[in-house]
Amino acid sequence: MPAERLFRRQLERATRPDGSIDLDQLRQLVVAWYEDSARDRERTDRAITLMAEELEGANRRLEALVENLRVQNLRFEAALDNMLQGLCLYDRADQLVVVNRRYHEILGLPPGLLQPGISHAEQLSIEQAAGLHAGRDLQEMLEARIALVDAQDGPARAEIFTEDRRRLDVAAQRLPTGGCVVTVMDVTAERAAEARAAAAGRLTSLGEMAAGLAHELKQPLTAIALAAANARRAAERGDTAAALVRLGRIADQAARGGVLIDHLRRFARGGEGADANATADVAAAVDGALTLMGGALREASIELALALSPSLPRVRGDGMALEQVLLNLLANARDALASSRGGPGGRIAITACQTLEGPVVLEVTDDGGGIPASVMDRLFQPFVTTKGPDRGTGLGLSICHGLITSLGGRIEAENGAEGAVFRITLEPAPG
Ligand SMILES: Nc1ncnc2c1ncn2[C@@H]1O[C@H](COP(=O)(O)OP(=O)(O)OP(=O)(O)O)[C@@H](O)[C@H]1O
Ligand SMILES: [Mg+2]
């Protein structure tokens, strides 16, 4: 209430009915009023001080929060920049929110060329101006990317080659909050190491097969020697017809040896150079593996049971790679049989059929007692072996795994009633 009105009220209260003023009462009223308002002021002052302190505290907390955020942000940026993968994060509207240094490095772009805030389409055209995506229709590219990501449950992956022949593994995934994350990884060195390991594995298999091969070649050579001796005798007798029959046999046997050596040569060279659209005949791969390994199995008196469905479709992938996988599995089964019985004998079964859903399932089983529990859950990792360093490299199954996944298939292992079961699932070739 304004001071003047208050004073008037005190004055009214101190005015006697006859209009005179009771000065004493007025003095008391004014003093009480003054004390009241002094207390009010004091309370207000205290409230203001408290509020100021509270505000200062809030300010300090806010500053600490901002500082904390700044440090977190720095850490986040440092982590992003030092990732092995290049990374781009897009929001719901397909705008670039985060891009790291590795992304620029891997794609050979000048540092800082891409900045958050641009759209995905703008990013593609900036990249094209910097020499990427040569000759590509960017709109088409963008639509293909979006369709690919939308069609997948998990990340959509692709391996692409850059102009300078590097191999990049690109993965894109929708985020639950909307938007999407794209990562790029340079896998050139990794793939080269895998190829070297596969080549080393092939040579190891070849070494292992030497004994079996010697046996395999000895048969045609013995037949040739015999037929040559017979042909000479027939010629000496002047029996041209008989000599010609023997010479024909020699030619047949020489051809058989030739097939074997040819096969060996193709195997040693490996499947590299096979194109991504290659298809393979499962039965032919089994046949090829047995051509190289059959002798060694027979020598170890191992019984072989073959059950290949007669109507197998061709599968996606390279026949030589499939053959190499089978050779590794057969060598492992042979080793397991030899060590479990401490001598010859045992049984290996190879079966193949097409499942109702389409894929072809190829199984190699043996009765060698099964895979040791100590290696079961690391079986497909490199250098895992129970054979000792002078006997096994422990690379066989990791190479098999790499080859089968590169064919777009799957390889799994379990222990059956009598021994190991290796199951390979392969996609049928299109068409
Ligand atoms: N059929 C099998 N039965 C039992 N154990 C097996 C069988 N196949 C593989 N294993 C186990 O898995 C391990 C790894 O096999 P892998 O082929 O990768 O290497 P390795 O055979 O030991 O060495 P390398 O292949 O160089 O000769 C083997 O050492 C063995 O213990
Ligand atoms: Mg092996």
Automatic annotation (TrEMBL):
InterPro entries: HATPase_C_sf, HATPase_dom, His_kinase_dom, HisK_dim/P_dom, HisK_dim/P_sf, PAS-like_dom_sf, Sig_transdc_His_kin-like_C. It is an enzyme of class 2 (transferase). Keywords: ATP-binding, Coiled coil, Kinase, Nucleotide-binding, Phosphoprotein, Transferase, Two-component regulatory system. CDD domains: HATPase (cd00075), HisKA (cd00082). Its EC number is 2.7.13.3. Residues 212-430 form the Histidine kinase domain. Residues 48-79 form a coiled coil. GO terms for molecular function: ATP binding; phosphorelay sensor kinase activity. Pfam families: HATPase_c (PF02518), HisKA (PF00512), PAS_7 (PF12860). It comes from the Bacteria. It catalyses: ATP + protein L-histidine = ADP + protein N-phospho-L-histidine. PANTHER family: C4-DICARBOXYLATE TRANSPORT SENSOR PROTEIN DCTB, SENSOR HISTIDINE KINASE. This is histidine kinase.
